[in-house]
Amino acid sequence: MIDPLPLPLPIKATALLAYLASGVGNVLQAILRRYFKKRSVQDFDQRVAALGPGDVCIDFGANMGVITQKLAATGAQVHAYEPDPYCFAALQTRFAGKSNVHLHNQAVSRTAGNFLLRRTKDFEKDPAFQSQSSSIIRSDAATYDLSNAIMVEVVAFNDVVKNLGQPVALIKMDIEGSEFDILDGIVADYANRQSLPIGVLFIETHERHLPHRTALVKYFRKANLRGHLPFRIDTYWP
Q1: Could you give the number of structural domains in the chain?
Q2: What is the DSSP string of 3-57?
Q3: Phi and psi angles of residue 201, each rounded to the nearest 5 degrees, phi first
Q4: How many whole angstroms separate alpha carbon 40 and alpha carbon 207?
């Protein structure tokens, strides 16, 4: 797919400078982050506008279904993954009778299995909002209470994409830290000259909560600017 929002050369050059290991680089990253987050939404909207009934999309971390709704409105086949039973029940109500929306009560990571989904300490006060932070990776005691945790099924990212049997036009991913293992897998696959049939992947990355993963985010942002990725991966999704 042709990039609907070609990056201006001055911005591209400045962004590449921002990933130098220096104080100046860190300042530039903070300034450019605002630019790229806005651009990410614009890029997403333009790509969604180009979708149609022949396309397949995936919403990983569908939550209450806002993005799923946007994707489904195009007529595309949409697979929405949401592990939290509270949100999944809301999705079932919202998309009842929508034949192009396929709901999966599962989380996603690099590997399949059964893992604890940790909910925040304030989950019961406002589950619709607090569920946005539910995670199978994050476990900081200030945010999560294990008494709120529930066991959920987790599917492997590569398996989901491959089992669809056709290219995936667009993926949105907001999975509270599990994205890093998936990005690790993409790096490993690319090193082995393997690639998945994906048009574009929009990811919200959570390095602010998992700072030891910051280097991986920088790697992908630099590689994306240089065109060194098997498909477009936008790590600025807000």
Answers
A1: 1
A2: -SSPPPHHHHHHHHHHTSSSHHHHHHHHHHHHHHHHHHHHHHHHHHHT--TT-EE
A3: -125, 115
A4: 18
Q: Which residue has 């993926």 as its token pair?
A: 171
Residues 199 and 232: beta-carbon distance below 8 Å: yes
Which residues, other chains included, contact 75 with Cβ-Cβ below 8 Å and sequence gap of 6+? 51, 52, 53, 100
Residue 3 belongs to a domain: no
Distance CA 150, CA 98 (A): 28
**Domain range enclosing 176:** 9-107+156-234
Instruction: Provide the pLDDT for residue 98.
Output: 97
Q: How many residues does the chain have?
A: 238
**Are 77 and 188 a contacting pair, CB within 8 Å?**
no
Q: What is the pLDDT of residue 2?
A: 47
Residue 60 tokens read as 């990983």
Residue ranges with strand state E in 174-213: 198-203
Residue with tokens 């998992």: 210
Residues 60-75: pLDDT tens digits?
Answer: 999 999 999 999 999 9
Residue 189 near residue 219, CB atoms below 8 Å: no
The least confident of 31-35, 43-47, 84-88, 109-113 is 31-35
**Would residue 149 count as lying in a domain?**
no
> Of 94, 3, 6, 84, nearest to 50 (Cα)?
3
Q: Is residue 35 part of a domain?
A: yes
- pLDDT at 228 (0 to 100): 82
4 part of a folded domain: no
CA distance 152 to 232: 30
Query: Residue 209 maps to which CATH number?
Result: 3.40.50
